[in-house]
Amino acid sequence: MTAQPMIRVDNLNKSFGSHRVIEDLSFSLAEGERMAIFAPSGAGKTTLIRILTEVEKADSGRFSLMDAEPVTLFQESRLFPFMTVEENIFLPFKIRGKNVTNEVQRRYERWLEVCELTDSRSYYPYQLSGGMRQKTALVRGLLGEPRLLMMDEPFQSINTVSKQSIIAHIRQTLPDISILFVTHIADEIPMLAQMVLYFKNACLNGPVQMSAAELQKEISLSNSLFITNENNRTSALNVTNKEIL
């Protein structure tokens, strides 16, 4: 019997007024698969994540998630300003009434090391840089070892060296996790994804599915608006300073 996919999307459509951002989109994410949605800025990547988390409603189509407790990491860190780093990270355990076991505490300490937050656990969000806030949100989402993780530009405020360490730790400690993440930075994809849904136009429609290894060759032939690596981010501010769609 074929296993049910962790995410299944069928004929999804979404417009904002006359601006279509998702058109007849269908795809599935298998259990244990790590997939990237790679598309230009403004193409509807954030909107897709918002629909899958039921923050936004699609105009038509349907989707299903096979995990009752997926974790979603948005572009914003969404930390509680009146809580410390440690309190923010352990909040999901408190809400769900889960004990912080010795094993959880061990994982927590290791995550702080990887994210360079060991000396910042008692800081409040206003005392943190943007990258530190984003790292805190990552630890909060991953400490409970979810089966399904959805991420919207999860590393945008994190430098390349830290990003590489975090992704290596995810792959080492959560080898069976199912991940769907959206990005317009090509260099992030081979670090984490196995497969890519590649959209050439500023609308999530008619993707080309390929392996992460095939992506660099493909985008070198395209004139679409992508950031190929972190060094190009400054020169691409006209791309990233946009309405999030």
Explain what this protein looks like in three dimensions.
The chain has 245 residues and is α/β, with parallel strands linked by helices. The protein has two domains: 1-70 and 149-159 and 177-245, Rossmann fold (3-Layer(aba) Sandwich), CATH 3.40.50; 79-145, no CATH class. Helix content is 32%, strand content 22%. The protein is built from eight helices and nine strands. A six-stranded mixed sheet has the order 5-6-7-3-8-9, sandwiched between helices. The chain has a three-stranded antiparallel sheet with strand order 2-1-4, with helices on one face. Strand 6, helix 5 and strand 7 form a beta-alpha-beta unit. Helix 2 packs parallel to helix 4. The longest helix is centred in the C-terminal third of the chain and has 14 residues, at 160-173. Residues 233-244 have low confidence and may be disordered.
**CATH architecture assignment name of the largest domain:** 3-Layer(aba) Sandwich
Radius of gyration based on Cα positions: 18 Å
* Average pLDDT over all residues: 89
Helix content: 25-40%
Structural class: alpha/beta
Biggest pleated sheet:
6 strands, mixed
Instruction: Just give the CATH class of the largest domain.
Output: Alpha Beta
Binned strand content = 15-25%
Oligomer: single chain
